[in-house]
Amino acid sequence: MNCLIVDDEPLARSVIEQYVEKIPFLKKYRSCGNVLEAIEILDTEPIDVLFLDINMPEITGINFLKMRSFEIPVIITTAYPDYAIEGYELNILDYLLKPIAFDRFLKAVTKAKEIWEQNRLTHPEQETEIFVRTERKLQKINLKDILYIEALADYVRIQCSNEKVTVLNTMKYMEERLPAEFTRVHRSYIVRLDKIKFIEEDMIVMDQKLIPIGKSYRDNLISQLNML
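The structure corresponding to this sequence follows.
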């Protein structure tokens, strides 16, 4: 789950970042010190859970909650207990008081994980695009445009119908992010199943590209093609 931490106190952000690093299903995606920056991140990047302070300059956390509706779990992190009732009325997931104990933090994010997993089960068709991080920017790619993905040492190259995008991610990360239309066919290749033209012996032909089939991946590939 990609986390966005919004708090104007660097020390408070650091504590949450350390907690996030300890939990396998969380990833600190971005961290910022004010709501204005958070708005831009939420509008453009794939955030799954929001940690939000209340007492911040310019726009408070409570006013931020009143400004917009959130489709992702929101966990308040604050030193002020006075806003708890108002926070829950604004449909937050949990309300954590600073200093935040790790076991209390874990309880809150476990609830967020349950919601995240349920949404993935009930709305698997919603993800039609992904964001990937290139050397200079975060780029959005439509899943229907992807032909195959190739490992390149410490990078991954995504071959789309109209461009090639080199990203700073691993094959394992890509494999976990992609839906069932994609499958690993070799330690260096992931392909989109409906883009396969034909298979000849141990090679896949895709738009004039020959892709090898690894022995350990062949049975799974054939099984998935039979289900199309």
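The radius of gyration is 21 Å.
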